Amino acid sequence: MSLAEAGPGTENERLGVVRLSMLRNPLIIKPELGKPMRNCYSLPGPDFTYGMYMHRRDGGVPEAIGHWDSVKAKPHKRVMPRDFVAMGRGAVDEGCTRAREFALYYKFKDTHQKDKGILRYGGKVPPGMTFGRPSRPSTPLFDIMQHRYKELWMEQQRARTVVQQVVRKKLQTGEVRENRTTFLRMHPLPVKKESFWHLQRFEKLLEC
After folding, report:
1. 202 DSSP 8-state letter
2. Which of 25, 111, 168, 180 has the maximal Cβ count within 10 Å?
3. pTM value?
């Protein structure tokens, strides 16, 4: 929208002096019919180049089709730490027993650990190596249509029920070990008779 479209008698008429800053204020500008809402930012001219300008020409499509610049991985020599386990084993095999002998053996037989990360710095890929995780085996559609998985599950449940019944029968047929409580319940102790106090000279008469 321009200043002429915001003049008197137009759809976007404004009261007072029409200024250029009105076209840059989103709170004042009105939405136009059939057009998207403006963000009040002016675009550069047709001579403007978006992005970074490349001064050197790379040959275009013919160069890309006929020649492909491939960067070769440079082998990176990694300094591995010393392998004291292997050197100590070798020193013992040679008959070293003193600290000085071990130090001399470490000096002349300097052994370093092997770099196991052969694929980290442009190493050769071993033959037959597969990257990534193995794919899941495909689901047999024929078994799904025949409800084979349901039948297998029902067979497992039946076998589980049979095992539970056998275990339950073994628990029922087994003899229960008696303890003092069950023994006293089956064979209660004799009840003591109540006896009142009497004089000793009347004891014989009461017994008679």
Report:
1. G
2. 111
3. 0.26
